Amino acid sequence: MNYADIKKYDVANGPGVRISLFVSGCSHFCKGCFNEIAWDYNYGKEFTDDTINEIVEFLDNPHIAGLTILGGEPMDPKNQDALVPLVKKVKELYPDKTIWCFTGYLFDKDLLENMYKENPSTRELLSRFDVMVDGEFVEDLKNLNLKFKGSSNQRTIDVQASLKEGKVVLIDKYN
Ligand code: SF4
């Protein structure tokens, strides 16, 4: 997997000050995408153990609330395997810091009903994510007043509560 960018001290993609990893590669091709350059799976730099260590070391700071993974498409089947060691390490070392993930897939239809059953990496990732913002960006539904998302079709989901209840559980304060 390649990644497009790492933003340290990001306050736009989840609560508090966060480190954000923008992975490369996306096949949703949303009209008006905020990061079209990251559609290309080969864009940016190679995601290596050193990248993981850099992120993990940066998180060792009480002022950093957590990690956000976005893109590109983190849940693209081509990207998931590379993210598993990162997410495992972050949760192991910093269980109190949150992991947010932004995906263009639908949490219930695409992830839970399909990928979750077929792909062990999907299960590894979802078992450690705190929050997912799901759904493609829809330009006609763009709303600048929304918190941590671009269009009103997108949902901010409590991942662990959703897995437990077997249905999408929204986080009211962000929806
Ligand atoms: S899912 Fe995200 S990165 Fe992919 S095209 Fe849509 S807005 Fe862009």
Structure overview:
This protein has one domain (2-174). Helices cover 31% and strands 22% of the residues. The chain is built from five helices and seven strands. It has helices spanning 49-59, 77-93, 107-118, 120-126, 159-165, and strands spanning 2-10, 17-23, 45-46, 64-70, 98-102, 131-134, 155-158. It has a seven-stranded mixed β-sheet. A hairpin with a 6-residue loop joins strand 1 (2-10) and strand 2. The relative contact order is 0.15. The model has no long low-confidence stretch (mean pLDDT 97).
Keywords:
175 residues, alpha/beta, 7-stranded mixed sheet, 5 helices, binds iron/sulfur cluster
Name the ligand types.
iron/sulfur cluster
Number of strand elements: 7
Order of helices and strands: EEEHEHEHHEEH
* Class derived from helix and strand content: alpha/beta
Shape: globular
Number of helices: 5
Q: Main beta sheet, described?
A: 7 strands, mixed
Poorly predicted residue ranges: none
For the terminal residues, how far apart are their CA atoms?
31 Å
Strand order of the largest sheet: 3-1-2-4-5-6-7
Q: Give the percentage of residues in beta strands.
A: 15-25%
The residue fraction in helices comes out at: 25-40%
Average pLDDT taken over every residue: 97
Radius of gyration: 15 Å
Number of domains: 1
